[in-house]
Request: fold
Amino acid sequence: MSTQSHWEGHHGPVLERQGEYTVIACQACGFAHIIPIPDAESQQRMYREKYYTEMIPDYIERHTRDQPWWDHVHASRLKTLESLLPVGARRILDIGSGPGGFLRAARDRGWEGLGFEPSEQACRHCVGTLGLNVRQEFFTRETDLGEGAFDAVHMSDVLEHIRDPLAMLRAVRRVLRPGGACCVAVPNDFNPIQTALRRDRGFSPWWVSTPDHINYFTFDSLQRLLERGGFEVRQREASFPLDVFLLLGIDYTDDDVLGRQCHGWRMRLERTLYDMGLGEALTDVYRALAKHDLGRHAVLYATAREGAASPEER
Reply:
């Protein structure tokens, strides 16, 4: 699509339309997002009350069932964060803790963790079932945890939901000590395989999910955003490119049972490689995929730039 769209200072080529929302490659923001952007009150109400009960009601159960696989994923992320930090750095903030798998893995590796999770259901699971330190709150620019209070921050599947992701990253930078590290993971949307399937095989844009997914990132647009937020990107990784199943004729886009089956194959492959001692090789493969903008998720590791924040970053 080549038409342009404008809304309250946001402007750029139209990528997709879904109901009342339009996805634009916003030239003002440097990444794609929907317009209109949902108002803050309705969005906060959705995540506090409805997200885990109406939109993803089986997620906690499925996450718990998949925990052995998630343990490998989280251990790999923590290992990379540890490689960017001095020995002994062990205080981490998890924004959007969800069912708490990451914080549990961090605790098992000796980290002191604090989580922020707006959902009552997910927070209750974190605190009551797993015994984690998680607050049922939104992390915002007004959140006061003290400057430089943490060695590392983890945010997975968060920035696509945020009305102002740049403000979020600047708030994250404030709570990190100088040189502290963060891991940010987002869906890798409008990637080359998705675009080719849309263009050449008539697929609908199954990755567009309005209004909960406000923003749509690529590796490059996420890196630019992190740099604007006061970070230096140190590593880029992909996750397994689930879209390859579509290239093989296995269309899971409207079939939840088949989608779970594909996810199961992916988990089995990765767990087998980890169990065979080939975890580092798998990481190398995913870093190579990131160089070609492939993979279902873009996972970027960055460190906070040294020195005081500039007026723009504040």
